Amino acid sequence: MNIPDRVKSLSLMSEPNQSLLIHKGEFILVYGDDQIVMNGEINYNWFPIANARFSGIASFENNDRNEEVIKLKLFQKGIKFNLMIDNLLFSQCRFTSISIGSQTVLEGISESISVRGDRSIIVNEVLFSVANMRDFHGSPIKGTDTGEHTVSFGRIEFDTPDFTILLDKSFNHDTILKLLQSKGGYAILYNGSLIPKKNGITFNEASDLFHCFSNFLSLINGRRCSAIFKHGIYENQVIWSDFTNYNVDSYKRVTSWPVQISTDHLNSSLQNFYKIWKSESDRKFLKLVIHWYVEANSLSAHVEGSIILAQTALELIYNWLIIEKKAILAGKDAETISASNKIRLLISQLHTNHEVPLSFKHLQGFVESNKEVNDAPEAFVQIRNAIVHSQKSKRDKLAQISSKAQYEALQLSLWYIELSMLYILNFKGNYYNRCSGAEWLGEGEEMVPWMVFNEYSL
User: What does the pLDDT read at residue 260?
Assistant: First the structure.
């Protein structure tokens, strides 16, 4: 068996939240006709916010203008300036700290795309990293960055007509994941390679592809993660390195829909995701629904707020899939249909019934104790309405709904969102059903319901 080598890593972390050195030595701060020569470091720091930051000693010796005039102009609050490395723009920055004594020490932070090198040059490969992505059992790869020859099941391969992406677990994946689970924050867990099918790729083209890929990764991860620390390669030489602070959520263990021991159908899902992404209008739909999904799944607004976010996602999916794409309803019928009927119509397309999942005892208890509630969609909508509306009767009703019933209602809505997105992506494999009540690894994995329906229909 020919086992491929692990993708080379150009951004290494031996522990979570470790700073990455971008540049050490001379760099220049430029504002209009004025400039300050700096000697110091530029690092990518994860806290207090993930971003490229600089620190160094300022020199004004080569300026024709008076040093004090330059200081008065550049050190004004809110001034933004260009940070140059080797006469190439790295990023736009602002000062965060100024210390004037025997030496002038300046610190600042990037506030734009942060790229070292010449981003105008076309490259034939882009190496990148991914932080805080969940564990997958992929195909075998061999080798480590230490030169040892080991085999692990750590590769996910994505292939489209325009590009191929290889995504491999980092050589120290298991070790650093344990540290991440203990300490929290951020850690590189995967490294990857993007290879275009045509002859070369520009910086902007690569950025557009990674924008799509990062949104897809967030959908399978259940929290935001992105391709970061990208390095454009041409003839085995690094041409440019992108240290922009793309969206990555700090580590938090959450439930998500992919099964752990198989990556089957992820490639076809990305292919379909990429097809939808090519339409500007549909791209906005994907970005919005993923935003609401990961926010609700992360409990960013606690359970009550996350229920509202999940309802927003379901409403968006309903309008995009049922009204715009399938045109099942039109005119006043589409406008006047109740929220619970919207959900019923949506999940009917997924071949999912309206019943409360058997494991959700508290939500079922809510249904049985309320005569006006007769199924799961109605239960979710009633709980959501009790949260949103401010009338005393609604507040009193909310106070009577147990926190466990509310939590189960949230999980139900997230399940509907996940199934809807899998249906939209024409997913045909097994997924993890968060409503199954499974307690052990491997349990709760089942075929998507539309494939089960198709099998029984044959």
Answer: 85
Cβ burial of 456 (10 Å; 0-12, 13-18, 19+) is: exposed
- Report the C-alpha gap between 82 and 419 in whole angstroms: 46
In 3D, which of 344, 361, 342, 445 has the Cα closest to residue 408?
A: 361
Q: E strands along 114-183, which residues?
A: 115-117, 125-131, 139-142, 151-159, 163-169
Q: Rg of the chain over CA atoms, in angstroms?
A: 26
pLDDT tens-digit series, residues 413-430: 999 999 999 999 999 999
Query: Is the peptide bond preceding residue 4 cis, with omega within 30 degrees of 0?
Result: no
CA distances from 201 to 145, 195, 400 (A): 27, 9, 58
Whole-number Å distance between alpha carbons of 311 and 384: 8
Mean pLDDT of the chain: 93
Per-residue pLDDT reduced to its tens digit, 143-187 = 865 566 788 899 999 999 999 999 999 999 999 999 999 999 999
Q: Which two tokens stand for residue 252?
A: 């938090």
CA 334 → CA 238, 308, 310, 312, distances in Å? 54, 21, 20, 17
What are the pLDDT digits (tens) for 29-62? 998 888 889 999 999 999 999 999 999 999 876 5
Sketch out the chain's domains with CATH numbers.
Answer: 20-117 (2.40.10), 125-269 (no CATH), 280-457 (no CATH)
d(CA 377, CA 367) in angstroms, rounded, equals 10
Percent of the chain with pLDDT over 90: 80
pTM above 0.90, yes or no: yes
Query: Tokens for 280?
Result: 């500007």
Q: Hey, which bits of 15-150 come out as E strands? A: 20-31, 34-45, 51-59, 80-85, 88-100, 104-110, 115-117, 125-131, 139-142
